[in-house]
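Dissemination and training. As part of the outreach component of the grant, students in the summer workshop were shown how a complex can be specified as a set of sequence lines and then modelled as a single object. The example used during the hands-on session is reproduced here so that future cohorts can follow it. Participants entered these lines:
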Amino acid sequence: MTEFALRTDGAGKRYRKGWALRDCTLALPAGGVIALVGPNGAGKTTLLRLAVGLLAPSTGTVEVLGHDVTASTPRTLSRIGFLAQDHPLYKRFTVAEMLRFGRACNLRFDQGLAERRLAKLGIPLDRRAGTLSGGQQAQVALALALAKRPDLLVLDEPVASLDPLARHEFLQVLMGAVAEGGVTVLFSSHVVHELERVCDHLVVLNRGRVTLAGDIDTLLAEHRLLIGPRTATDPDRAATVVEAVHSDRHTTLLVRDGAIPTAPGWQAQPVALEDLVLAYLRRPSEPSAAVTSEVSA
Amino acid sequence: MTWLLWRQHRTEVCVLGLLVGMFGIALLVLGTHAHDLFPDGPAQCAGAAGLNDACAASFRRLDEEYGFVENLLAAFYLVPVVVGAFLGAPLLARELEDGTWQLAWTQAVPRMRWLAAKLAALAGVTLTLTGLFTAVLTWFRRPFDAWEGRFQYDAFDLEGLVPPAYALFAFGVATAAGAILRRSLPAFGVAFGAFLAARMSVALLARPTYATPLTTMERVPASGSKDRAGHRPDFADWTIERGYADATGRRLSSTEYYDLETAANRTGTNLNQFLHDRGIQQFGVYHPADRFWTFQLIETALFTTAAAVLIGVVVWRVRRRLI
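and obtained this result:
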């Protein structure tokens, strides 16, 4: 039996100003790396906070590692590591005190592991967290989360505020931890670039709704670009067209049709992950409507 | 959890402990001298300012040497709000401001346990600090109480059980405001404002109605300088209202009384004699001094209940994951 890292059924969250997440049904398998992609304000943070039990859903259910996370039992909580956006730390604590905080508040906490990681990065334990650079703060927060030896590690925009060097270093440490095994990583990002290299699974969120979710290899196999003479969308294909782009003489269709034979005059091409994600981000949230756009020249 | 509580709140606790300790020691030193003016203890002189020459002398020296301190005590009206709001405002607001609530509540300590530990510890510190300080202040005021009673605002509001209850109320407002506003400083401000508003309206409007006041009515004595000891309301009672009434008991307005005074002057008679002849009575509406502890208990219950409701709001919000 596959254990699901995160399973939601019709989950929604409404704040006073409106719905941040609607009708979200997902089943993300344990193991591997799951990317949650969407523009700012798409509901990524809300979904991740639901996943770690910081928020309770207004509708539907959220199950993490097979448990209702809003019950907040110490056992469930200790299986989840969370790194919030902007990697908050107690700024006036020293790094050593941050580790002591982790030890004091967890059932299992691998102090040695955290110390080794920080020593390798050259982060002194006696410095106050607030005086560290952004990249170092992110590393301390990651070391804290990993020292819990969680089964699920959730990261909210972990590299958004880091410079390219710190970003590279952070991802290296993160992927090293994944390679050591056991942990499922769920992270959000608005950067689509480089996802293919690190992720196994993809969820695209737009305006509070899930527009695409699945294994990346499967998604790439299901989708392709069809390029042909300029036409209106072929009615037989309308259901499978994700996006249609028309230039003066050509029409490019992004279709999700598996690999049925191509009509005469049309060329099939594989689609890059980035283009696939962008096409779904441009799409309105209603699943039936495809986007049609005009490209001049 | 104990270590975390101490590490996060040691600055506030130390600063408040130091301030309260300094004022407390100053009061103990001054108070020892003030108590020395009463060789048989201040209680022996209660109400005896006009009867006993030794007591009268003691009270005079008390007024000359320590009267200024008594006036300064009014500043201590603010001790409960400073202690309570200073500890309560950052409890949730600082975590929300810095984003660290997301860190605190995703460790293995469930948020309700975290909240319960924080509330218990910080409310405990609030009560301990204000309780100790109030004990010192109550002791310090004993000579002044023997002189003026304990029901005036400058005694009742600083003594006994009510200051810790005020502090708990301030703590509750500050914590709830912090949870809703998500900022420490505005939460502190709200707590300060709510504290002043609640304290003033309760002291001025609600407190006189905790029990039905008693009324005395007696004819104006013919000669005014008669010793009034033993007459109610006396120095230790809380006089709500006092004035003159005609022979039938109807209360006189100030214009009516002024007219009588003018008439007395015109005829050239002594005012008291003049009033006495017309059967004018003096009345006093008051709470007797022995209601002190009843009133203290009622007011303590009032503020403690308000604090409990506010803490309940905080618990409810955290439990429902509204924050």
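Chain B has a mean pLDDT of 91. Students were then asked to discuss how this feature might be tested experimentally.
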